[in-house]
């Protein structure tokens, strides 16, 4: 793959990573009042992870961890209002004054969005994992172990990788 | 905090839940001691319930869950609830003790067993305390699930597995019937509380009556749903002693008892209930007379007794209801003891076949005494608790008039004769012969087994001695469902009444028949044909599903796509007639025209390119151009999301394409034209559908309202996002759960296909650049 063989791509992806993180954070926080939100933030993070995997900078791992964290957050935010006798998913809005930033208004929706971010990232990582992206970009070479007859029909792959 | 008795209900239920969790985590290390731990919450519940026996006071506890739907957890412990939970938890604790003796010292999975038994007990307690029908339903289903686990405890044994599945399918089907019945019931009665019900009539009430009776019949093993009960004998005997004496099978009877006041006046309740009950009573008794396995005889006897209870409750007279609850109490005690006896004989003598058992009277005198006392109680012989209860039933049967007297009364009496007969046959079969058993050592007595047996037998005897107290406990319970029953008592010596004479005739005939049948040698019991039919049906459904799936899920992506397209096109046809041509115009904004040209051009080229990479890129071009359309319409959120999704998809395609040949394999001209037609048809259908529904709009879009709600309740200016995270957060919650399921599915699928990232492969890399690993085949197949 080009991404793996080219140090320029790897360097560029490395350089873009922090920017993507900032963009994702912005999308998450801006979501309440401007375009953005948990889904968008998750996709930005996911996109940078895809690029990093393609450039051989990291492996698509911990998909289940992301998914579980996201699921727990979303679930807790959903049922937490029940503890205070509010209906399911009732949201709490808080606002406080922060130096430099002025009045910051936020709420439990932000935490909910955090969970969404984690789930979207988990989904993208599991896609990469499912496609075995690492071995595709030459990260880990693996032999064919399956003896299923279906593998006979895999001539496509040889063409693709050679 | 002031003391509130309702808190105790929560405390006891929470105690059960806590112990279940602790036992399932740590129980494995405790071995058989886990059973002692499991007995603690049961004993606590039994003790507390015992303090409320016969009391006219009521303890309630409730928690509103979804107020709008009147969904609530509601508990109400009145005299009935207390009486039943004493039986459930008291016998549960005794069964735990008994199980300590029943299992051998090194028995595996004792933690799991104890946890499941306790969970089942908790479900049962919740069921008998439930006041709202929804609460009752939840615990009803919990008993189905936990009993499935208990029956299938020996999961390595295919017989146990099949039996557990059979029980689950039948009782779960009954659960569905119950849910439907409760929905109709609440609709007709106007309340979900059992304590507030009043007689209802009408077609809805009739339908509810049928559904609820069927549900109760599945749980309480009424003919023809009884087939699961004898099979459930595959469970360890402590489970049978618990499930089939005081708990599982009584759930249906209890449901019928507490809900009967509502359906008393419907046309179907009584005939259907009587049909179930009488058929079950006779068929069960006949079954008990035909088997040679002592445990199966008891199982069929249980079926018969449940039929009697069903019959009495369906009769609905205060006398019959009083008799039913009395028998329910007596039965729970003597049947648990009898099952324990059979289990002990099985453990110590090595068989339960009445043809093989002999000489046990001398070898196991204590067990023999327990068996005789409990069996005599079952047969209704004085001076034992079963006698006055049976007497009340006979009196209720004799009190009927007209056709009912001849049919129902006659069958009850006939059934009682058979009950005495199978009891006699069982006792003679197990303990009749005096010769020592050939080639068998009788294992020594285990105190943990005999203690609960003796306690239960003692309860049967003492219950008769303190019959006044028993009446004082049973009568308030019956009064909660049949207020007119407060005039009745259990009598130690009824005098030479018709009922007493009848019952003595019953006993004599029963003893005679039983003694005669016991002498007849039966080599083996009948084959369980009903159970085999159920299994065949269950397997058949599986086979049918596999065949249908094999046809429908053929695995060809082009065919799937074609099916989708055909369906979408067909769905678009009715909308095509609704297009209002006057409202159509070309564009809002010139830029749209340019974008549309770009989209169409990209889409058409997507069908024509032969390189897969190019196809992915032009697809991306379609997506990005569509987001341009959103820009033109001023929808920044959609633009952002669409752009990001397209980005991820394009990059994802690049990853996936590495697995495939660079060109499409079948790039013939015909196939290219076919793709163009499919894509064109799909696009046209969607466009037609949109145009059609646009002409059909109902009122203004609620945008202003949403914007206001967003500011007020959600505190945000981005209406779309506030809708997602607040106004319709439940939808978002569901959607992200779907995402999670998809992700887990991907991981599972790719793992199943032979995950080839073992450490050995990593440590010994192949020098050959090699073909891609096998796990990608799922993707290959899909892409082909």
Write a structural description.
The complex is a heterodimer of chains A (162) and B (784). Chain A has one domain. Chain A is 62% helix and 7% strand. With 162 residues, chain A is mainly alpha-helical. Chain A is built from 7 helices and 2 strands. Chain A has a two-stranded antiparallel ribbon. Chain A is flat, with a radius of gyration of 21 Å. Chain B is mainly alpha-helical and 784 residues long. Among the domains of chain B are: 271-440 and 461-522, no CATH class; 719-755 and 772-784, no CATH class. Chain B has 31 helices and 2 strands. Chain B has helices spanning 5-30, 33-51, 79-102, 110-129, 133-151, 158-189, 203-219, 228-231, 237-243, 248-263, 269-290, 294-315, 318-349, 360-363, 365-379, 386-398, 402-431, 447-465, 467-479, 498-519, 529-552, 557-576, 590-608, 612-632, 636-657, 669-694, 703-714, 719-727, 729-752, 759-763, 777-783, and strands spanning 59-66, 71-77. A two-stranded antiparallel ribbon of chain B has the order 1-2. Chain B starts with a helix and ends with a helix. Classes of the chains: A mainly alpha (162), B mainly alpha (784). At the A-B interface, helix 3, helix 4, helix 5, helix 6 and helix 7 of A face helix 25, helix 28, helix 29 and helix 31 of B.
């Amino acid at each position: 793959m080009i991404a793996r063989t080219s140090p320029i791509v790897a360097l560029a992806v490395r350089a873009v990573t922090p920017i993507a993180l900032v963009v994702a954070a912005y999308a998450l926080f801006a979501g309440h009042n401007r375009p953005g939100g948990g889904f968008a933030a998750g996709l930005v993070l996911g996109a940078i992870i895809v690029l990093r995997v393609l450039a051989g900078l990291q492996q698509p791992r911990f998909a289940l961890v992301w998914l579980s964290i996201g699921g727990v957050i979303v679930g807790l935010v959903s049922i937490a209002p029940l503890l205070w006798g509010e209906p399911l998913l009732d949201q709490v809005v808080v606002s406080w004054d922060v130096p430099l930033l002025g009045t910051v208004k936020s709420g439990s929706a932000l935490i909910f969005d955090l969970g969404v971010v984690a789930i979207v990232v988990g989904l993208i990582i599991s896609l990469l994992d499912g496609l075995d992206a690492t071995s595709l970009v030459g990260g880990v070479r693996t032999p064919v172990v399956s003896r299923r007859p279906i593998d006979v029909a895999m001539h496509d792959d040889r063409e693709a990788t050679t | 905090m002031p003391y509130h008795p309702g808190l105790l209900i929560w405390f006891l239920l929470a105690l059960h839940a806590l112990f279940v969790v602790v036992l399932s985590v740590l129980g494995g290390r405790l071995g058989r001691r886990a059973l002692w731990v499991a007995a603690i919450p049961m004993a606590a519940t039994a003790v507390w319930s015992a303090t409320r026996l016969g009391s006219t006071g009521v303890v309630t506890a409730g928690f509103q869950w979804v107020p709008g739907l009147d969904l609530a957890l509601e508990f109400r412990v009145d005299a009935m609830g207390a009486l039943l939970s004493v039986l459930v938890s008291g016998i549960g604790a005794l069964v735990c003790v008994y199980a300590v003796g029943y299992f051998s010292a090194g028995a595996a999975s004792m933690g799991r067993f104890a946890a499941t038994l306790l969970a089942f007990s908790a479900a049962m307690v919740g069921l008998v305390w439930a006041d709202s029908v929804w609460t009752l339903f939840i615990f009803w289903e919990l008993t189905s699930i936990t009993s499935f686990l208990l029956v299938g405890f020996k999961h390595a044994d295919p017989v146990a597995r099949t039996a557990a599945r059979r029980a689950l399918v039948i009782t779960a089907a009954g659960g569905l019937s119950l849910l439907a019945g409760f929905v109709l019931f609440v609709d007709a009665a106007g309340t979900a509380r059992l304590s507030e019900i009043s007689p209802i009539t009408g077609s809805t009430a009739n339908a509810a009556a049928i559904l609820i009776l069927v549900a109760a019949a599945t749980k309480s093993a009424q003919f023809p749903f009884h087939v699961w009960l004898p099979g459930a004998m595959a469970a360890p005997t402590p489970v049978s002693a618990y499930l089939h004496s005081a708990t599982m099978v009584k759930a249906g009877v209890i449901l019928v008892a507490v809900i009967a006041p509502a359906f008393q006046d419907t046309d179907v309740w009584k005939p259907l209930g009587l049909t179930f009950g009488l058929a079950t009573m006779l068929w069960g008794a006949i079954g008990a007379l035909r088997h040679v396995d002592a445990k199966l005889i008891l199982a069929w006897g249980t079926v018969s007794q449940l039929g009697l209870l069903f019959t009495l409750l369906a009769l609905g007279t205060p006398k019959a209801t009083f008799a039913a609850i009395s028998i329910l109490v007596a039965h729970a005690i003597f049947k648990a003891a009898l099952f324990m006896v059979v289990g002990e004989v099985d453990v110590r003598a090595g068989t339960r076949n009445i043809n093989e058992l002999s000489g046990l009277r001398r070898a196991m005198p204590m067990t023999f005494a327990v068996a005789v006392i409990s069996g005599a109680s079952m047969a209704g012989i004085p001076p034992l608790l079963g006698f006055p209860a049976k007497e009340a039933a006979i009196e209720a049967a004799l009190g009927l008039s007209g056709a009912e007297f001849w049919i129902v009364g006659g069958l009850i009496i006939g059934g009682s004769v058979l009950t005495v007969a199978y009891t006699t046959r069982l006792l003679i079969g197990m303990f009749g012969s005096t010769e020592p058993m050939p080639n068998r050592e009788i294992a020594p007595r285990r105190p943990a087994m005999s203690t609960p047996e003796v306690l239960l037998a003692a309860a049967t005897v003492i219950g008769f001695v303190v019959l006044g107290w028993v009446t004082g406990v049973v009568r308030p319970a019956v009064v909660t469902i049949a207020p007119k029953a407060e005039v009745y008592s259990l009598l130690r010596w009824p005098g030479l009444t018709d009922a007493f004479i009848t019952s003595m005739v019953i006993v004599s005939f029963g003893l005679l028949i039983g003694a005669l049948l016991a002498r007849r040698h039966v080599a083996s019991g009948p084959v369980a044909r009903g159970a085999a039919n159920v299994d065949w049906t269950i397997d058949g459904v599986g086979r049918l599903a596999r065949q249908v799936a094999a046809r429908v899920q053929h695995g060809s992506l082009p065919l799937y796509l074609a099916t989708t397209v055909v369906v979408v096109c067909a769905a678009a046809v009715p909308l095509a007639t609704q297009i209002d041509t006057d409202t159509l115009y070309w564009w809002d904004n010139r830029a749209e025209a340019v974008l549309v040209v770009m989209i169409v051009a990209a889409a058409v080229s997507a069908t024509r390119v032969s390189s897969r990479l190019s196809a992915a890129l032009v697809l991306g071009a379609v997506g990005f151009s569509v987001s341009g359309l959103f820009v033109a319409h001023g929808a920044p959120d959609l633009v952002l999301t669409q752009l990001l999704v397209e980005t991820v998809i394009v990059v994802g395609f690049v990853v996936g394409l590495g697995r495939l040949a660079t060109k499409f394999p079948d790039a013939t001209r015909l196939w290219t034209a076919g793709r163009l037609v499919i894509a064109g048809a799909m696009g046209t259908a969607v466009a037609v559908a949109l145009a059609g529904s646009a002409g059909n709009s109902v009122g203004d879009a609620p945008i202003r309202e949403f914007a206001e709600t967003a500011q007020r309740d959600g505190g945000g200016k981005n209406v779309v996002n506030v809708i997602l995270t607040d106004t319709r957060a439940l939808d978002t919650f569901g959607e992200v759960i779907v995402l999670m399921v998809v992700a887990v599915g991907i991981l599972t699928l790719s793992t199943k296909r032979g995950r080839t990232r073992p450490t050995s492969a990593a440590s010994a890399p192949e020098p050959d650049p090699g073909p891609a690993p096998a796990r990608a085949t799922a993707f290959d197949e899909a892409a082909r």
